[in-house]
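Tokens for chain A. Residues wanted.
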């Protein structure tokens, strides 16, 4: 295994001193990059995900073209419901469709906890291939969806702003909901452990819809399951990050899971996030992706302001959600370069 030449991300997650914050972007492998768009025109979404050579090429594009400090494997959170036996279609520009969602006890019989080495082998092959291709340039991030977020899609059957059907399912059939959440959790634990064995240096858990729940429901329907995944990763001594969009009310509870990092969206200030999370955890985020459309001089100032707010230690520069397809490549590069060239003023060097 090649020695890691750039281990800034790993150092930041271990709360070790760094010369500058590491930087990467959620959804950096894809949609805004011209080379990705060329592949998208030739191959369907799941062909790209399930062909290790394509997933590897896509994962490495932003490392070579944007200069990020980490690669994140090109995949999708919905490969887990798919492996469990649900049909998942990805309609370009429309999002995911699960034609036969889970609505009842009978439906639950249609899914199972799979052998991930059989059903998700293509992800592990892509990780191993990417690790080899990276040859120690930067760390490799693997990921999975949080059980609550996956339940949202598995019950709703499609994307939604509010996931009313998923919430109704949890409140009217709680026993069934927890059964489903535990099945997803058990599958995900197997999945992330095997990602680590296949070369992932860090695992990020995406709870995209965590912010739809109040603090008590977030604990009951999301965090108690995320905690099991974090525990399993910590047992493997695998670095991990929780990103629960909109769930700022539970930053303290998330910090107490023993995770290494907490991802933040743009709706919370660095000062408040640090106050809630405490000093035991590394913070990641939290630029509004829409701000990448600003004129480059404005964009650079916004990045500097964000960096001053978080300080250079126990911090990973990132967006508050995935990069959008309409961001010009030179703007993405300006975001990354501004972080790389950042010189903290003495008052913000360590906070």
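Reply:
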């Amino acid at each position: 295994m090649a020695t890691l030449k750039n281990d800034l991300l790993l150092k930041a997650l271990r709360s070790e001193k760094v010369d500058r914050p590491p930087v990467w972007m959620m959804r950096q492998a894809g949609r805004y990059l011209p080379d990705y768009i060329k592949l998208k025109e030739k191959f369907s979404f799941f062909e790209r995900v399930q062909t290790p050579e394509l997933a590897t090429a896509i994962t490495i594009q932003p490392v070579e073209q944007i200069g990020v400090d980490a690669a994140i494997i090109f995949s999708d959170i919905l490969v887990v419901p798919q492996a469990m036996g649900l049909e998942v279609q990805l309609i370009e520009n429309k999002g995911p469709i699960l034609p036969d969602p889970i609505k009842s006890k009978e439906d639950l019989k249609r899914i199972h906890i799979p052998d991930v080495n059989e059903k998700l082998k293509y992800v592990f092959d892509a990780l191993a291939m990417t690790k080899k291709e990276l040859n120690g340039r930067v760390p490799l991030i693997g990921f999975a969806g949080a059980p609550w977020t996956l339940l949202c899609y598995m019950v709703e059957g499609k994307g939604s702003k509010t996931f009313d059907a998923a919430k109704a399912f949890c409140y009217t059939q709680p026993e069934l909901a927890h059964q489903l959440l535990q099945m997803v959790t058990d599958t995900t634990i197997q999945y992330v452990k095997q990602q680590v064995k296949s070369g992932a240096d860090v695992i990020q858990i995406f709870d995209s819809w965590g912010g739809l729940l109040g603090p008590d429901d977030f604990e009951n329907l999301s965090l108690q399951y995320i905690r099991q995944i974090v525990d399993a990763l910590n047992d493997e001594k695998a670095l991990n990050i929780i990103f629960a969009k909109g769930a700022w009310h539970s930053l303290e509870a998330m910090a107490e899971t023993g995770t290494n990092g907490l991802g933040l969206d743009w709706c919370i200030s660095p000062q408040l996030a640090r106050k809630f999370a405490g000093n035991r955890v590394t913070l990641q985020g939290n630029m509004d992706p829409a701000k990448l459309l600003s004129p480059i001089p404005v964009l650079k100032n916004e990045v500097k302001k964000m960096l001053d707010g978080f300080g250079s230690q126990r911090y990973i520069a990132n967006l508050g959600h995935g990069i959008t397809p309409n961001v010009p490549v030179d703007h993405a590069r300006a975001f990354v370069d501004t972080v790389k060239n950042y010189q903290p003023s003495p008052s913000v060097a360590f906070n």
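The chain has a mean pLDDT of 96. Strands lie at 71-72, 89-91, 95-97, 140-145, 202-207, 239-244, 261-263, 282-287, 315-319.
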